[in-house]
Amino acid sequence: MSEHDNQGVEKVVIIGSGPAGWTAAIYAARANLSPVVYEGLPKQVPSLQLPGGQLMLTTEVENYPGFPQSVEGPQMMQLFRQQAQRFGTRIEADDIERCDFSRSPLALHTASGQEVRTHAVIVATGASANWLGLDNEQRLARSGGGVSACAVCDGALPAFRNQPLAVIGGGDTAMEEASYLTKFASKVYVIHRRHEFRASKAMQKRILESPKAQVIWDSVVTEVLGQERLEALKLKNIKTGADSTLPVKGLFVAIGHTPNTKFLDCSGLDLDEKGYVKLKEGFRTYTNIPGVFAAGDVADAVYRQAITAAGMGCKAAIDAERWLAEQGVH
């Protein structure tokens, strides 16, 4: 088929506007695929998918190459966006709420009630960190006040060095985050609501035997204290009911991530048991549906870094370009 066979049908639609989505857009636009990015609508709560992705909640990014003096997360996403626009990417401030991948061309349905037909789709909607849901937690996460959902992203920042820090969680991710933080913190408190971890024995051992780590069992955080920056946590022991206050300068919430794939229900796309998009081959971005590709944290439960997401966005655009060429869409 030629590009003129289906009037009004897009060549490629990119769903999501984090590092994966914008990188895919840059590559697709430079390949003359005239990509359209559905960047999403603003949300009031950080636990929901945001235009710009999780970096919109990160005040300072030190580990992305090319920014030797660091860069604020929202500023980085604005630069990505501008670069994609420079090459002709079209941007729609709308959510994709439903997909029908049984049709050809593929059909996408927006929150505003539009149907979009496209030959190829790149799903790059990311994964949202699970939060405790406390008001001040959300505020300090947005303002860079010492609350984070990614120790690897933020733990090495000057504000956290040689300071008492807290990690919430009991799984492998929490153990990894706490272990990483022991390199920088004066003390790492691991707060867990039960009296045993879910993490593997090997991961538990790293924390239980660390001289810098201390576990606070059977406890939950009931309040996050601090105005400009985090100052302390209010804890409740769920067995005794006793309240206490723990002075810390950083809180790392490590209770998992939820991939932003709800809109893919009934689409026919293969998801794993946690809701992440399944890829057909380890190094490729192909899914089980021809013409549908996935990139970034929506398909990556392991690394969850801006640079790995951007790399996957690059691969998805190249995979989509080659697939479209095979279908005669140029």
Write up what this structure looks like.
The chain has 330 residues and is α/β, with parallel strands linked by helices. The chain has two domains: 10-128 and 257-326, FAD/NAD(P)-binding domain; 131-253, 3-Layer(bba) Sandwich (FAD/NAD(P)-binding domain). 24% of the residues lie in helices and 24% in strands. The strands form four sheets. Strands 1, 2, 3, 4, 5, 6 and 17 form a seven-stranded mixed β-sheet that branches. Strands 8-15-9-10-11 form a five-stranded parallel β-sheet. A hairpin with a 4-residue loop joins strand 5 and strand 6 (115-123). The longest helix is centred in the last third of the chain and has 21 residues, at 306-326. The N and C termini lie close together (9 Å). The relative contact order is 0.18.
Q: Which structural class matches the secondary elements?
A: alpha/beta
Taking all Cα atoms into account, the compactness measure Rg is: 21 Å
- Broad shape: elongated
Report on the biggest sheet: 7 strands, mixed
